[in-house]
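Contributing: when you submit paired examples, paste them exactly as shown. First protein:
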Amino acid sequence: MAPLLGVLACVAVWAPAAHAVNFSGPTNFATGNFPQSVVVGEFSGDSDPDLAIVNQHANTVSILLGAAGGSFSAPTDFAVGLTPLSLGVGDFNGDSDPDLAVANEGANTVSILLGGAGASFSAPTDIAVGTAPQTVGVGDFNGDSDPDLAAVNEGSGNVSVLLGGAGATFTGPTNFTVGGLPRAIVIRDFNGDSDLDLAVANEGTNNVSILLGAAGGSFTGPTNFSVCGSPTAITSGEFNGDSDPDLATANETCHNVSALGGATGGSFTGLTNTGVGNLPDDLAAGEFNGDSDADLAVANQASDNVSVLIGGSGLGFEGPINLQAGDGPSSVAVGDFNADGRADIAVTNEQDDNVSILLGTSLDGYPRPAGATPFRIALVPAYNACPPGSANRTHGPPLEHASCSPPAQSSGFVTIGSPDANSAPVQSLGSLRYAVGAADVVLEASITDVRNKSGLADYAGELQARVTLRITDKVNGGSLTESGTLGDHTFVFTLPCSPTGGAANVGSTCSVQTGANAVVPGIVQSGKRAIWQMSQAEVLDGGADGDVDTPTGNTVFARQGIFVP
């Protein structure tokens, strides 16, 4: 059953070109009997997202308080009306505590529960609406800053609008006709006039009714737009990137999702249909793969799973990617339940009397980059800039050097850190540094005290650095989301060496500062490149002639492999 859809905002894992998206397996938390609708809110004031779930057979609302790591408390239940199907959240009495509005199909009412300290709620106050209300939405329809309600009535084929007033009071319903067997609603400004409009999914007439808001909480219309068979849920998002709000419906008999592109004046066009699981009953918009296109999560009641559809060009979606849920998924909501910057999914399972939590992860389940630049790694044993524990913060499978152990060295022509002729202490330093710069990735390399292996004279040739970076077009540590445009690139650049004189305490210094675009022209297009991981860095000597451009005889002088956090 579709949950509240009020004034929507899209919620914001790395994915390659194929848009791979990964979630944990379901973790289940008990609810009441036959849960139908779930919404995400913040009811306890601790900043952790909580859940409110209506239980159709128990005539209750269950509140599950969020905790660290995406866990939830045992439910606390509050009585509502007969056969509740859906709920919405708003501050109806102006005390800053979120309140609940519950659509009761069997009582033809909406129950108002006022929130209090510690996620407590008052006894319900019931308000009459039309026949067999299915869903309820919250919005300010008359511009007085008091939240109003819109209840979708399946039995009477209309929407009841109740205007809110002081102290959580509401006017009697004003009814607006829509299509046959209306099931779900989304509230948004579809024509850009700052008045909230209504979009209602009509299961019996296979269409969506658009009612445009007018002064005083009135509505014009309806104007109807066809979708596939038996739409039971509706959501809104920016699916085609043109800034006009679009619509998506879950269609039970077609087993698919219909998308409609928003156009001027609150019109819709460009119907597309994308297959999902069996008997889709609800859907929610989210951003699951970090490409800024709105995606969808769909609860499929008969196939016991959630279909994730990845948004792309136009109104097209890729997928479905099917995620296991419980028995009889009935409602779905999106939120960041474990505070890792990724979108997670909550889905109620009506036959199991529980809610499944699916935590979003990156590809292969590894963390995403956070504050990865600038970063410096060691190239010689005498210099170690890697912080302890780096190996525990990798972004991929372990490599040859899984920690900050000293790098391997095997050159047949040069050496570093050899004792000087005057027996002065070894003064060798060496590192590679990577940093996101202005429209570029900065590459720096430096090694000191470089000498010919024979005779220990200062080395007068060249060294060559080769580093393979996996980079995305997102800034590390920002939104913690990765782009679908990710690639591995090997950057090869030369380090010229400057002798300091054989009698000096320190031999030659070989160093360079360059950029990714100088090495591979055009590789960094946007200035928002982030280092996802470094698979390996190598430094080669120049062989017998010291010239890196004549590769015969060049050998690996230093090698280090480590993932940057």
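Second protein:
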Amino acid sequence: MAVGTSVKPGREWPGVGTGAVVIHQRHLLMVERAGSHGAGTWTVPGGWIEFGEDPLAGAVREVFEETGVKVEALGSPGWTSAVHPGDPAVHAITLWVRCIWVEGEPIVTEPAKCPRVEWVPFGEVMDRPLFAPFNYWWPTYAAGTGRL
């Protein structure tokens, strides 16, 4: 690739993104995806890290952009690497970032990307159609932490 050209993350090389795991009162903040790979599935707020951006800051930014909720990032409990089943041209490395709720109620701020935003009780997370990278990671995290 020539210097100065721009390609969408995850297309010609793996892109790095964040998934913000926001837990509050035994509920998980989740969004329904629309308009891109994984449309119609549920996951946590997140997206591609911007050039030069710290992943924890990226997670905080994505939560606010997608839900209007303010959070504090605590650290990363893990990562996944996945070629998306619905779009094999997309390869994402997702850094899962554990966050705590600071303030705000979730609202739909980007209806074309996330038409629904909800606090989902832990016992109902696996009942939804889940975004593949989140589905790879969440069951192991939820079963192994004991801190939800």
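If you have annotations for the second protein, write them as plain sentences, like these:
The longest strand covers residues 70-83.
Strands lie at 15-24, 27-32, 42-43, 46-48, 70-83, 91-103, 116-121.
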